[in-house]
Structures are given as structure tokens and as C-alpha cells.
Design goal:
The complex is a heterodimer. By secondary structure, chain A is an all-alpha fold. Helices cover 73% and strands 0% of the residues of chain A. By secondary structure, chain B is mostly helical. Classes of the chains: A mainly alpha, B mainly alpha.
């Protein structure tokens, strides 16, 4: 069995599927039985997906591209 | 209008110093480069770092061997340029500074590893619901600026740009186990920040 603390420690790897198969199986079994950890892993996931939408630089405006091209080709 | 369809055509166009190739390359890669540079150096000097990186990219082009995608190779140059800049300003990127402190969740478990301070329920149940609060979004963005630079860069490449762990290792020149530690810590910090906001309605960063 793995503990709640171990779920916390391996949850990030679990999201990237970079943990071992054994760890993933133990973690899933734990999640079936523990609502606190289910909540934690779910909240970690939505936090991670929300992070994807923060502070996205846009494609530069044409004038800015012109300026940069001028510098680079000089 | 994009006139270069493949990566190898684009690279060849850049070597010929074709203006359209420059425009295409900037449209394709500049936003990612800025995003990564900001995560390592902060907003103020990111533009400068990226501009320097473009010069380095052009200079190093003949050495590109296609062992990674061109974009990964370009971002590696941005990361190096940013690190050089940080070193010049005496900001350390040593291994300790690299992983940053543990964000202290350990105290929330008892000696048997059970939760004593359990996660609280949130009134948002999806990423969209979370971000519907502009205040929280701003708070998360502010937290990004306070993370140790390598944590921030790892989070940027993984969550915001969708790179695999192997590609992140390549770009930041760190081992995969370090990338995993960096991600774990950065994500935990983000989680704690959202939780704090859900709990108190206030941002954890001043």
C-alpha cells in the first residue's frame, strides 16, 4: 500500500505518466479508496491545465517583425 | 502567407538570408522564445534575450544537425542565452537554486503518511471555471514571476508549451530526474496558490 504522502509525492509524475507501472497501479488503488487524495489529484490536474492558459505571448505585429528582420539581415 | 512549408526549406531559406524565411521563422518561433525567456529572466529583459538568441541561431545554423526538431534546438539557444545573461547579472543557476526549496506540504501529513490537513473543496471544478476569476488568473501569473527560474522554465515548457520531459531535458540541459523534481515543486506551488485563493479569496503573492 502507498500512503497519502506518497500520493502527493508521485502525483506530478503520475500526471506525466513518468512514474513506474507499479507506482501507477498502487496510486490508482489508493485513489479508489481515498477521497482526499482523489480530490488532491483532481485539483492538481485542473491547476495544471489552467496554468497552460496563463500569459501567452502573441505572434508579433507586422511592424515588430519588420524591425526584427531589419536588425537580423543588416 | 507562409511560403516555407517544411523545416528544412525554412532552414535553407534562413541560411540564404531570404527575408520571407525570416518572417516565417519569427512568426513560428518568436512567441515560444519570448515565453521561455520570460520564464527564465523575467519580462523586462526577455525581448533583448530573444533578439540576442536570434543572432546566435543564425550564427549557429550551419551546425544544426537535425538531431532534435529545429524549434527545440532554437529554444535551447534561448535558454543558454538567458542563463548567460543571468550569470552576468550574478543571479545563480546552481543546482540548489535550480530545484528551489520544497514547497512544504510535508507538514500536512501525519507520521503514518495520512492527511491531517486535507485539501479543501473548491468552488471551481474545471480549468475554465478556475480562470473565470480574473483575480486568480492574475495571481497565478504573479506567482510564476516569483518561482525559481528553472522551476518556472520547466513549468512553461511542460504546461504552457506542451513539451515532453525528454525535450525539456534537451532544452534546459538538465537530467530527467531533475525535470521531474522541478515540475513537482512548481506544480505544488501553483496548487497551494490556488488553494489559498479558494480558501481566503486573497493572493499568496504580494
Amino acid at each position: 500500500m502507498i500512503t497519502c504522502k506518497q500520493v502527493y509525492e508521485t502525483a506530478s509524475d503520475y500526471m506525466d505518466t513518468s512514474s513506474s507501472l507499479t507506482t501507477r497501479i498502487w496510486l490508482r488503488l489508493h485513489l479508489m479508496m481515498c477521497k482526499h487524495c482523489r480530490r488532491y489529484v483532481h485539483q492538481l490536474r485542473i491547476t495544471s491545465s489552467a496554468t497552460a492558459h496563463l500569459d501567452k505571448p502573441k505572434i508579433p505585429e507586422d511592424e515588430e517583425i519588420d524591425r526584427l528582420v531589419n536588425k537580423l539581415t543588416r | 502567407m507562409t511560403s516555407y512549408d517544411t523545416e528544412s526549406d525554412l532552414i535553407e531559406g534562413l541560411m540564404r538570408k531570404d527575408e520571407q524565411a525570416f518572417r516565417d521563422a519569427i512568426r513560428q518561433y518568436h512567441p515560444s522564445m519570448i515565453s521561455l525567456a520570460r520564464s527564465l529572466t523575467g519580462h523586462a529583459i526577455a525581448d533583448e534575450v530573444v533578439q540576442e538568441s536570434w543572432f546566435s541561431v543564425l550564427k549557429a545554423l550551419p551546425k544544426f544537425e537535425g538531431r532534435s526538431t529545429f524549434k527545440t534546438w532554437v529554444l535551447r539557444i534561448v535558454a543558454n542565452e538567458a542563463k548567460t545573461r543571468l550569470r552576468k547579472e550574478n543571479r545563480q543557476t546552481s543546482l540548489e537554486a535550480m530545484t528551489g526549496d520544497d514547497p512544504e506540504m510535508a507538514g500536512r501529513f501525519d507520521q503514518n503518511g495520512f492527511w491531517i490537513d486535507q485539501p479543501i473543496g473548491w468552488d471551481a471544478d474545471s480549468p475554465d471555471e478556475l480562470l473565470s476569476s480574473g483575480e486568480l488568473k492574475e495571481c497565478m501569473e504573479r506567482l510564476l514571476t516569483t518561482l525559481p527560474e528553472q522551476q518556472c522554465a520547466t513549468l512553461n515548457l511542460r504546461e504552457q508549451q506542451g513539451y515532453s520531459l525528454a525535450e525539456i531535458c534537451n532544452i534546459l540541459e538538465v537530467s530527467e530526474s531533475n525535470v521531474r523534481v522541478l515540475l513537482h515543486r512548481a506544480r505544488t506551488r501553483m496548487f497551494k496558490c490556488v488553494e489559498h485563493f479558494q480558501d481566503t479569496g486573497e493572493c499568496c503573492v504580494d
